[in-house]
Prior knowledge:
heterotrimer, A: 142 residues, mainly beta, Immunoglobulin-like, five-stranded antiparallel sheet, four-stranded antiparallel sheet, 1 helix, B: 296 residues, mainly alpha, 4 strands, globular, disordered C terminus
Amino acid sequence: MRSVTHAMTTLAMLALCGLEAAHAQVRAKAEVSCRPAKKLQYDCIIKLANSRTSEPLSGLTLMVGADMPSMPAAHNVRPVKATEEQDKGTYRARIALEMYGDWALRLELSGVVRDRVVKLLRFESDRVGEATPTQAPGRHRH
Amino acid sequence: MIDLIQNTVDGVMIGSSYGLLALGFTLIFGVMRRLDLAYGPSIMIGGYFGTLLYLHYGAGPFAVAIAVVIGAVIAGIYVERLCFAPMKAGAAIASMVSSFAIWMQLEQAAILVLPRHTYPFPPLATAAPLEFGPFLVRVDHLIMLVCALALAAAVHIALYRTRFGLALRAIIDNPVAAHLVGINVRTAVLLAFAGASAVGGAAGFLVLAVDQQVTPMFGMWATLKGLIAMMIGGLGSVPGAVVGGLLLGIVEANSQWYFGPQIRDLVAYVVLFAFLVVRPRGLLGRAPEPGMPPKA
Amino acid sequence: MDDYLIGVLSNIGVISFVALSAYLLLLTGEISFGQQGFFAIGAYAAGIATALWGWSLTTALVWGAAVSGSAALLVGVPTLRLHGLYFAIATLAFAEMVRILFELFRYQISIDGELIGPNGTDGFRNIRYIFDHNIDAFQFLLLIYSLLAATMLAFMLLERSRLGVIFRMIGQDETLAELQGIPVARYRVLAAGIAGMLAGIGGGLYAHLTTYVEPRIFDIMLGVHSLAYGLIGGLGTALGPLLGVLMDIGLLESIRALAGYRMIIFGGLVAMLLIVRPRGLLDEVVVHKIGRGWRRLALWVRRSGLKPRANNARATGGPP
């Protein structure tokens, strides 16, 4: 029994060591703007660019997923594939959320560049905006 | 120095509503020996009743207050029936986790009906703040303080001058003995729950009216503040709840003034933790009796 | 395996660590609402190690576990005198303190012209280890599950060992355990430390899985959830909390059609379940019965194999 535990942890560590090859990766930066479409569905325009050179990243596979920061790992929105538009580096996706509130959009890039960008936005019924920290009740200042 | 006094005055005001929240909490705990994590959310349901009334019918503060209390009581009874009444004697953890599950249920139900981030609440008073020398006192804060003290006094009278109060105190002291002398414990507990929810609802209304808004975060906030105030003042102690609430309010107000809102919350928890480590029974709580530990 | 499934399974794996952490403390008879604090510490520590100090993932995870374990020991000592509700609230207070401290915590280094590091309420972004080292989602999933499997193995061993019996004894009746000569304080602190480490490992994995953490994630909801998983799944075995996690996240995923009503349904289900089974699905009684059933089956198989003509009462493997 003990040796099996040892073997498995060793395997795990070997797996890690074997995979350690540091590369200088291309990093992406993204601009996201979303508009409400139907109920709890939003149309998002995402512009991807190289974070260093600012040149648009085109021809990538972009999957858009979302998570609620206040309830980690609980609301897995099925990722949707974004389609690239005419403008190079501009993608469009329609996402369906489960609740209004603050969501962390997870932009998974694959293909020529593999990266992930996270954008926090507040999704409401009539608009999508920045997620500002909520003020707790009981403010008793003048 | 002036700041300190001003803050203390403000702290006493908001502390009075903390005290009310703690009062409801402590009544439930005293009677059931279990923690109701859905307490804050049931008050929030009341709050949502109130805001609906305000939004759709433009009702005034008094009507809204009644709506809040009714909503809180309905939610409280729901919680009691589902999470506490059916549980056997030793299943305290199960009750707590069950009340947590209902907390989530109530929160989601509220968000479904009213999905926006904030909803308006009628103000208690629109007059300008009163001035007492260098100190400012907001009129709505004053109303909050007066109402809270009045309610606390009412609860005290109910507990110490009525037959029902006597029955409750008997149950708090020793549930088995109370049953043996003929008190209908289950009914009394249900009524106590309803009463505690009503008190909580009133406290909730006061806070929401001063804030002039209700948000989905209110449930958790109310539970936490009530819990902290209750523990500081002493678990199961009615005067302790009020004292704990006032103390919490004062500490918070001063911390917020000198250090900002995050430190304010941090200090509240540090104080709670310190009390628990050094003097778990709080300021006015009973020393734990031998043979009757408040263990789950 | 499609990415979505990998994602869900990874989440289940990571959350299981916190659930097991709360479960361990439940074994010793203590309710903890605060394991999310150690989850947070593990996440931040491991994230800082890889993103700011350039450590390898393995070292970072070990570091995260060490820091959260030590924090747990630091909290375990002053709370020794507390029991039941008091202990629970003390852990809650601690976890909230940790969360608020992370809201104030700022530690940023400029790497390649970019500011990386925890930034208060904005959180800690760009924990990009798995991207920088070409680890794909499936490989990370394997990592999570091999660590989880090792942990489960350790728990199985624990149940059969003297330490496990001691923990359960303390959980049943502390005074009695003390009378039997067990230094209860020492074991409670030990349990606290191990539980803290478990949560810390989970946190480190979580930080690298999502590449982005913020203090808001580590709030009371997470803590009470992890407690609930053990209670729903059952306190009789370490598989209980896993079952709880599976039921929550798995069920939540499958009730897609009723997306907006999930919590309502799930909350109601949990409440009703707890009325009928206050110690969870796989509670001690069920586990014992399953164990007894297995043993009887094994005995029957063995006996019927070796002695085909056995017809005396002793060989039937019936009740003693």
